[in-house]
Write a structure and sequence with these properties.
alpha/beta, 11 helices, 7 strands, two-stranded antiparallel ribbon, 2 domains, Rossmann fold
Length: about 200
């Protein structure tokens, strides 16, 4: 097996991300915190921004639906960077080694444009990447097959030339169906072994 380029996901591959990191600071009671995350500030609601919807419209609509939780909804936007506590251990070192070998690096990420504008200046590892397909800009979400077709075209990769790394199996399966090789990310050690198997790391 051999790959010409490596394509990363960002959230929970390059950087840890979970709204719970913020809400553990905002809501002391565990049951109440779980309820808010399951019913108010949900992953599905967050994904609207990943799909291209402006945050202001999302906050206004959700606050009208849950007026008693409006301060928490607003805090999610104002303090969103606290949902990212730092890099995934070991992965940035692998990115650096790939860059030293001049392996072309790209990314496909479900990420809203406003949150991306906050996050990008804090993420110097992204400087190694030649191009990134951002869902909020394209209004396409993984695992929509169209986002992988767009990425192949943007990155100039033929089927089989790109190894795609993601922490979600459904995203890997969709990418493989469109011509990527796939690696389901679990930790840096297993990723390092996979990169060696694919011929892009010693």
């Amino acid at each position: 097996m051999a790959a010409r380029a490596v394509v990363f996901d960002v959230g929970n591959v390059l950087y840890r991300w979970d709204p719970r990191f913020l809400f553990e600071k905002l809501i002391e009671d565990e049951d109440e915190r779980d309820w808010v995350l399951e019913n108010v500030v949900t992953f599905d609601w967050h994904a609207q921004h990943d799909a291209g919807r402006p945050l202001a419209a999302m906050v206004e609509e959700r606050s009208a639906e849950f007026p008693h939780h409006a301060p928490l909804i607003e805090a999610y936007v104002d303090r969103w960077m606290e949902t990212i506590p730092g890099p995934v251990p070991g992965v940035h070192a692998l990115v650096g080694r790939l860059a030293e070998r001049d392996v072309p690096l790209y990314a496909i990420t479900n990420f809203g444009t406003e949150f991306w504008a906050l996050f990008r200046p804090t993420a110097p590892v992204i400087d190694h990447f030649r191009d990134i397909v951002i869902s909020g800009e394209e209004k396409l979400l993984k695992p929509d097959p169209a986002i992988y077709r767009l990425a192949l075209k943007r990155f100039g990769l033929a089927p089989g030339e790109g190894l795609f790394i993601d922490d979600r199996e459904e995203n890997i399966r969709a990418a493989e169906a469109e011509g990527f090789a796939g690696h389901h990310f679990q930790d840096a050690a297993r990723l390092e072994a996979a990169l060696a198997d694919w011929g892009v790391l010693d």
